Amino acid sequence: MPRSDHISLMAAGELRDALTALGRGDHATAASALMAIDPDSWHAIERRLAALGGPLPELLATLTDQP
Predict the structure, then answer these.
(1) Domains in the chain: how many in total?
(2) pLDDT at 55
(3) 40, part of any domain
(4) Which residues contact 12 (CB under 8 A, 6 or more apart)?
(5) Residue 57 CB neighbours (<10 A)
(6) Does some domain include residue 4?
(7) What confidence tens digit (pLDDT) does each residue in 7-18 have?
C-alpha cells in the first residue's frame, strides 16, 4: 500500500522541537523528539527532504556545525 505524503501536525511539531533542541546542543531531547514521529509522517518527511536535495542527517549536521 502506498504511503501518504501527509505529515501530521504532531510530527511537524516534533521535528521542529528536534531541530530547536539540536540547535541549542540538547542531543537527548532532539533524539527523543525525532523518535516520537509516527512512521507515515517520517516517510513523508524523508520524501520531502529528498525532493529538496538532501536527507535529514545532512540537515542536522549543518545545524550542529554552526557556531
Answers:
(1) 1
(2) 81
(3) yes
(4) 41
(5) 9
(6) no
(7) 999 999 999 999
**Host domain of residue 51:** 9-65
Q: What is the pLDDT of residue 10?
A: 97
Q: What is the DSSP string of 11-39?
A: HHHHHHHHHHHHHTT-HHHHHHHHHTS-H
In a domain, 2, yes or no: no
Q: Which three cell numbers stand for residue 11?
A: 510530527
Write down the residue that cell numbers 507515515 correspond to: 40
Q: Which residue has the cell 524523508?
A: 46
> Does residue 3 belong to any structural domain of this protein?
no
Distance CA 26, CA 7 (A): 24
Model pTM greater than 0.85? no
C-alpha cell at position 43: 516517510
